[in-house]
């Protein structure tokens, strides 16, 4: 199947799209419709000649935005649509061709991702209207982590919370961890061995991957667990909620907002959630920015060290995401905190590997676990899984 796949990532007021050919080198048509429902809604993206465009779409809904996206595909009609779906619960261990039962299962799982799954479902409904004859495939952020063993996915809570309410660790960023670990196993002489992956963007998570299967990951029931992120706290004492409620009278909604939107790099620095700005301010001596950088890197190192328990052997570590791909400072600091792992970072290679470059960062003649930067390609992975799912039907 050589014709392109349209990848859709639908939020409550946005649609990110990419038209992806089966040849990974072929240029992609991609863009973003945002502020949908508002009178300042717009569609922006790039044409195949690389020119940027911005098109106002006042008061457009998801269906109208998709019709505008269709006009921007330059006559290259997709053969299938792949949807990024945030939460597949325990229903989905791989991508699934969308039918009524799949939609019902995504609806059932919405309680676990109340902000994301309903928006993803709205995207599916709108896409079905605009492309009624195309096969549509759901690709889940959680599916890659369905190989976690119970010791990694169960919380130490009363059993009925799991058996009746499905409260367990699920993990997210699955398409990214799957893509970079697969790519490392193709590029490295170690193959599909034991890899630690660090996806560091606005959301951040780590994962331990053995033989192309996720063994453990830092995010849990929700994407709040684990590392320090742009505005999310990551791990806190589970007693914090009760403390804030009893001592400060905060409601659950207030606590949720603080932990998700006002914490992380932003909360620690008192400045920003943007790592570029944190690094600049830390260099010029800003105490909050310095602390934010220290806590951020320490928590990544601590998480990677913990996840190494899930691997029978460690072949290497992979950095990805906006920070992982572009910040030599963060990579250097994290690896410095893990001297007992035997990594040997080449300073020059580390400094030179930014802006979407793929590469191994080891010093010459090094024999310990490898260090890689692999730019993530979640959309490419979604297109590939969509293709496989549709091909399996024919
Ligand atoms: P998202 O999770 O929203 O996809 P990205 O993967 O694009 O986010 O990552 C965004 C983060 O990457 C931001 O904190 C941004 O500051 C950081 N980033 C981007 N470029 C650099 C850079 N050159 N140096 C340090 N951090 C960077």
TrEMBL record:
Biological or metabolic pathway of the protein: Metabolic intermediate biosynthesis; acetyl-CoA biosynthesis; acetyl-CoA from acetate: step 1/2
Segments traversing the membrane: none
Chemical reaction(s) catalysed: acetate + ATP = acetyl phosphate + ADP
GO molecular function: acetate kinase activity; ATP binding; magnesium ion binding
Catalytic class of the enzyme: transferase
Site (Transition state stabilizer): 173, 232
Cited InterPro entries: Ac/propionate_kinase, Aliphatic_acid_kin_short-chain, Aliphatic_acid_kinase_CS, ATPase_NBD
Pfam families: Acetate_kinase (PF00871)
GO CC, one annotated term: cytosol
EC assignment: 2.7.2.1
GO biological process: acetate metabolic process; acetyl-CoA biosynthetic process
Binding site for Mg(2+): 9, 378
Annotated binding of substrate, by residue: 84
Subcellular location: Cytoplasm
Keywords: ATP-binding, Cytoplasm, Kinase, Magnesium, Metal-binding, Nucleotide-binding, Transferase
Family per record: Belongs to the acetokinase family.
Alphabetized PANTHER family for the sequence: ACETATE KINASE
UniProt-listed NCBIfam families: ackA
Subunit organization: Homodimer.
Purpose: Catalyzes the formation of acetyl phosphate from acetate and ATP. Can also catalyze the reverse reaction.
Protein name listed in UniProt: Acetate kinase
Organism for this UniProt entry: Vreelandella sulfidaeris
Phylogenetic placement of the source organism: Bacteria, Pseudomonadati, Pseudomonadota, Gammaproteobacteria, Oceanospirillales
């Amino acid at each position: 199947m050589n014709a392109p796949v349209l990848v859709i990532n639908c939020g409550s007021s946005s649609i990110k799209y990419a038209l992806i050919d089966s040849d990974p080198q072929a240029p992609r048509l991609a863009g973003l419709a945002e502020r949908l429902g508002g009178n300042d809604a717009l569609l922006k993206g790039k044409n195949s000649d690389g020119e940027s465009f911005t098109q106002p779409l006042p008061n457009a809904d998801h269906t109208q935005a998709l019709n505008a996206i269709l006009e921007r595909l330059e006559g290259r009609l997709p053969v299938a649509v792949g949807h990024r779906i945030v939460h597949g619960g325990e229903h989905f261990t791989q991508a699934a061709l969308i039918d009524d039962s799949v939609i019902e299962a995504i609806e059932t799982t919405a309680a676990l991702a109340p902000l994301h799954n309903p928006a993803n479902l709205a995207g599916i409904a709108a896409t079905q209207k605009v492309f009624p004859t195309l096969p549509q495939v759901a690709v889940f952020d959680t599916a890659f982590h369905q190989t976690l063993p119970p010791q990694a996915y169960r919380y130490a809570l009363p059993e009925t919370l799991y058996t009746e309410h499905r409260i367990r660790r699920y993990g997210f960023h699955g398409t990214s961890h799957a893509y970079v670990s697969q790519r490392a196993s193709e590029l490295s002489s170690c193959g599909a061995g034991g890899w630690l992956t660090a996806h560091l963007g606005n959301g951040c998570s780590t994962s331990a991957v053995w033989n192309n299967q996720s063994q453990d990951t830092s995010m849990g029931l929700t994407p709040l667990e684990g590392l320090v992120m742009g505005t999310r706290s990551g791990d806190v004492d589970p007693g914090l909620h009760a403390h804030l409620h009893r001592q400060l009278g905060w409601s659950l909604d207030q606590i949720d907002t603080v932990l998700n939107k006002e914490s992380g790099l932003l909360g620690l620095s008192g400045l920003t959630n943007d790592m570029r700005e944190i690094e600049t301010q830390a260099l010029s001596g800003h105490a909050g920015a310095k602390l934010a950088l220290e806590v951020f890197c320490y928590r990544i190192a601590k998480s990677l060290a913990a996840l190494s328990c899930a691997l029978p052997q460690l072949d290497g570590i992979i950095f990805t995401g906006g920070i992982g791909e572009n910040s030599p400072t963060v990579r250097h600091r994290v690896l410095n905190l893990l001297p007992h792992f035997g990594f040997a970072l080449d300073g020059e290679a580390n400094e030179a590997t930014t802006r979407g470059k793929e590469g191994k960062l080891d010093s010459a003649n090094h024999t310990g676990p490898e260090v890689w930067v692999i730019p993530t390609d979640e959309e490419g992975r979604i297109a590939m899984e969509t293709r496989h799912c549709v091909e399996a039907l024919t």
